């Protein structure tokens, strides 16, 4: 079996995809896996040894020059692209996976011959490949500043059915003995820089407060001049990616912004303190590891858009994170302190959305109990979460009912050539109320809001788009209510067992010398059957 993975992204994104490639290798151990990437990132081959069998490169910069510069023949870029496509088609791929998900990759995959294309691709003038709900969520949530409940790796792993467990902390002997803390101070975007002065002060704080530790500054050759303005030459570790990987393997900790180095550290299992500011959105692209601690700003403008400069008079999100806060995170990481669990309400919403997104290709009913049991095992305050869940459900239902009442009928819009803004005033008012409330963090109404601002050629399209978005909301609320009922049942059952009632046999009373106890495996299965019947 031959598989082509298309990854026409930036360096950090490609490094971040390492768990996906390893998961693909695990799923297809005998397959020949090829990767197509941008030529300027061909050096990544040295970091992914043993995972990928062959690399092909896409020379995007030369192709763009060929289209825009006078010294190139007008057909040069076309001929280069045709040669690449012919080379790929000569491989006779059994499967092609699009990890990139932009129009360029879609057109390119459209030209590659394969019986099994997954992810976005172009065919007969139309974009295909978004039948999978996970892929649609990924396509909707990873452009701009839309919120996502799932990490980039989680989304693509679920989209392509690739196992992607998070990297666990690797405590090798060298790391146990190491007293080196590495800083990666500079990022590819000035908005994501915490500031060299802050890093300099943090270095002094660490070395004064933790006298056994030495801080070194990682940097590429083109960053040397800027780093030298603040740090001594002896503190600098100027290196390429392969050398950086070796330094990370021996480091006790990495402190970094949103960089490719943090993904490299996640691969290795080196603990990370990540400073996520500016356009960095840790919910989407943080270091994919359990050995990380993420610091974010509380300012309302963050995270901002990648493509725009900072709109504030000063760098508010950087100013919002003090050196003491970052040092506290460093202290906890070096001391092995377990990070506080993120919002368990967010975990509940993730469970709801997972059930919804899996519904496209699985029977959902058997998944309810599994999801409820998993969530129940991982939460410490289930009763409070259930109270919050019911309260949020009332708000969601209220918005849904108002939107459905405000939506004009399809028949009335079908008869119109144009629609007056007054006819949609109440519908728009609902959307404004949702936005102003800032209560839809999970994005139940995101597609509804986008349907209100989309372009349309005929008024009936308003109904079709809004109605479809509201049907999604209704399905999500139904799943949410069902999951809540399962959790309520588990919560009640837990209370019974806590008071000793759980020691009673489900199949009847059985006297034993040890007292009353539950019956054998058959009774447990009968009980499970009753559990399922309760919620049908």
How would you portray this structure in words?
With 536 residues, this protein is α/β, with parallel strands linked by helices. The chain folds into 3 domains: 2-159, Glycogen Phosphorylase B (Rossmann fold, 3-Layer(aba) Sandwich), CATH 3.40.50.2000; 173-334, Glycogen Phosphorylase B (Rossmann fold, 3-Layer(aba) Sandwich), CATH 3.40.50.2000; 347-499, no CATH class. The protein has helices spanning 11-16, 18-27, 60-68, 76-89, 103-111, 133-141, 152-159, 173-177, 196-209, 224-228, 241-249, 260-268, 282-285, 316-319, 323-334, 344-358, 365-378, 382-406, 410-414, 425-437, 446-453, 460-498, 521-534; strands spanning 2-7, 32-38, 54-58, 95-98, 117-118, 121-123, 126-128, 180-184, 214-219, 236-238, 253-256, 272-276, 292-296, 511-512, 515-516. It has a 6-stranded parallel beta sheet with strand order 10-9-8-11-12-13, sandwiched between helices. Strands 3-2-1-4-5 form a 5-stranded parallel beta sheet, with helices on one face. It has a two-stranded antiparallel sheet with strand order 6-7. Helix 16 (344-358) packs across helix 22 (460-498). The protein is globular, with a radius of gyration of 27 Å. The chain starts with a strand and ends with a helix. Pfam families: Glyco_transf_9. Keywords: Glycosyltransferase, Transferase. It comes from Bdellovibrio svalbardensis. InterPro entries: Glyco_trans_9, LPS_LOS_Heptosyltrfase. This is Glycosyltransferase family 9 protein.
